[in-house]
Design a protein that fits this description.
Globin-like; binds protoporphyrin IX containing FE
Length: 151
Amino acid sequence: MNNPLSAKTIEIIKNSAYLVTSNDILITKRMYQIMFSKYPHFEKQFKNTPEDQYMKLAEAISAYAMNIEKIERLKPALRIIARIHVKRNVLPSQYFKVGGVLLEAMEDVLGDRATLEFIDAWREVYNYVARILIEMESGFYRKKGEVKELL
Ligand code: HEM
């Protein structure tokens, strides 16, 4: 089960949504730079051109920022992402690493504007979305007869 997002986190994300939406491409670009330098073996799972992938992830992050109060409505979109992840064999254990990389990219791009409470709020949102995806993906793996460890 996923704990609901705290009221404080929702407030912080709402009040700073513009920071993320107006820097989403820069953040995702930086994120992929950090990810492929720290975890070069992840690169072979990606087939999109890097530009396409920045755009897709940037759109997703902005969508979470803008829809933070009704994030449950994004589940159909998350289901599509989960299916693509399963095709690329994304593993539950990769989520923690990618989450760290996303927060690092936000700090690099936003500098002082990425306050401690902003980063904590995004950590909570990332973990929340990650848990939804991991659960969906485990269901798809089970259907394929594969079992992937849960976090
Ligand atoms: C909360 C966490 C995550 C979110 C919101 C997210 C979001 C996305 C989105 C929006 C796409 C594009 C789907 C499309 O093509 O329409 C995607 C694809 C993909 N994601 Fe994730 N993702 C997350 C975690 C991860 C993790 C942990 C990995 C592991 C390395 C990963 C690897 C991939 C791969 C390999 C693709 C396919 C891209 C390609 O074919 O080039 N993602 N993800």
